[in-house]
């Protein structure tokens, strides 16, 4: 048995309204994609800033240690000295750098989304103009 196409007729007004709804939904989806792209950029920037902050803290700790080594020692009770030594011996764990995926260039993705948005908006205008 062969597959045969079945055609139905739709009222032109209903067709235009449905087409306009579909196009506006596509516009909304593309706008959401743009927002997600921006969130990804912000997330990468945040990660970068956290790494820089971590490096600055590491440098600060090294500077403080150097300063402590160069300052004269004072007499400290043995109990306090033991507490200080245990704090110094604890190492600060540094996060291991993770291998990151090479993202698609954001500019290219933004351009394609913008192009799609313009095309859909043009279709929507043409559809509304023919009413």
Salient structural properties:
single chain; 131 residues; mainly alpha; 73% helix
Draw up the topology in text.
Blueprint (H helix, E strand, L loop, with lengths): L11 H59 L7 H12 L16 H24 L2
Helix pairs in contact: 1-3
Describe this structure in words.
This protein is mainly α. It has helices spanning about 10-70, 80-90, 105-130. The radius of gyration is 31 Å and the shape is rod-shaped.
Care to give the gist of this entry?
The protein is mostly helical and 131 residues long.
Q: Report the strand count.
A: 0
**Helix proportion range:** over 70%
Number of helices: 3
Mean pLDDT: 83
Distance between the termini: 41 Å
Query: Class by helix and strand content?
Result: mainly alpha
User: What is the alpha-carbon Rg in Å?
Assistant: 31 Å
β-strand percent reads: under 5%
Shape: rod-shaped
The quaternary organization reads as: single chain
- Point out poorly predicted stretches: none
Largest sheet: none
Give me the strand/helix succession. Answer: HHH
